[in-house]
Amino acid sequence: MKLKIILNPYSNRGGAGKQAERVQRLCQQAGLDFDLALTHRPGEAIDLARQARLDGFDVVAAAGGDGTVSEVVNGLVQATPPDQPVGSLAVFPLGSGNDFADMLGIPHRPEVCVQMIQQARTRQVDLGRAQITNADQSSMVRYFDNNMGLGFEAQVTVESRKIQRLRGFAIYLVAVLRSLRAYEQPHFQVAWTDEAGQEHQVAHRSLLVSLGNSRRTGGGFYITPDAEMDDGLLDIAIAQALTTPRILMLLPKVLRGAHRNDPAVRLVRCRTAQIRVSAPVPVHLDGEVVSEEAQGASVSLEPGRLTVLVPG
């Protein structure tokens, strides 16, 4: 088995870079046939993963946080014919959030991750595909493995990138408080097709729209608390426009995934979704802001397309 490891040394405020030698040493001790590459700029993991797939590597490992995983997944997609599974993907969770890895039960200890690669037990999980349209009418297509957020959720991600002295979940909590001052709540129109093929639509001012392939985002927010990564469906959370006190009351519920019956949040499941916004909003995919001026998105799901190495 040929293994390509793509490590983002800037993940977790540089903490991932301090693990690079350890990861390399553990792979050598395990006798793995591997190549390790460090990224130096945003988007580079996409290029490295695409080339690794074209070069015939059997497994491509993302070593970093959710953003690194997402870039590696997008690179693998670019090098994979549409009718074939994407992967195999391995993950060394070295980031600040690690939502994707945690929801799959992937341990944070690199030595256990090496054992997991040796065991080569896989799981097929769904992939989300988003076509995003910006205010200037430009568009992009990106895939997401964990979740996608428009509005306040993405604004939190924007603010989190400005915080330098904190790590882990504390970053996201402070970013929430900062975002309360910076974000306006525009009018959203959300249309979706459910699992039975029925079409639905809502339109009103909203705090956020979040599409979850998994239950958790932002290192600890269970916005779509019932999402499953292999059920062939996306879970959508649509939060109405709320006052700051009401947002602060809702926040503890979201941290526990206990907002299912809160009237401010609508939770639905879908196969496809179309979203339009009256004013430009930020959008993130797997914790990476891909646009700060999006006005629409068309989202679909590719069931079971991603092959991931998981614990035995």
Structure description:
- The chain has 312 residues and is α+β, with helices and mostly antiparallel strands.
- The protein has two domains: 2-120, Probable inorganic polyphosphate/atp-NAD kinase, domain 1 (Rossmann fold, 3-Layer(aba) Sandwich), CATH 3.40.50; 127-303, Tumour Suppressor Smad4 (Sandwich).
- Helices cover 27% and strands 38% of the residues.
- The protein has eight helices and 13 strands.
- The protein has helices spanning 20-29, 44-54, 66-78, 99-103, 110-119, 152-160, 169-182, 244-256, and strands at residues 2-7, 33-38, 59-64, 86-93, 122-134, 139-144, 147-151, 187-193, 199-212, 234-240, 265-270, 272-285, 288-309.
- Strands 1, 2, 3, 4, 5, 6, 7, 8, 9, 10, 11, 12 and 13 form a 13-stranded mixed sheet that branches.
- Strand 8 (187-193) and strand 9 (199-212) form a beta hairpin.
- The two termini are 18 Å apart.
- The relative contact order is 0.17.
CATH architecture of the largest domain: Sandwich
CATH class of the largest domain: Mainly Beta
Tell the overall outline.
globular
Q: Helical proportion?
A: 25-40%
Low-pLDDT stretches are none
CATH topology of the largest domain: Tumour Suppressor Smad4
The span between the termini is 18 Å
Number of strands: 13
Mean pLDDT: 94
Provide the β-strand percentage band.
Answer: 35-45%
Q: Structural class of the secondary elements?
A: alpha+beta
Quick recap of the structure?
Helices cover 27% and strands 38% of the residues. The protein is an alpha+beta fold. Helix 2 packs across helix 3 and helix 6 crosses helix 7.
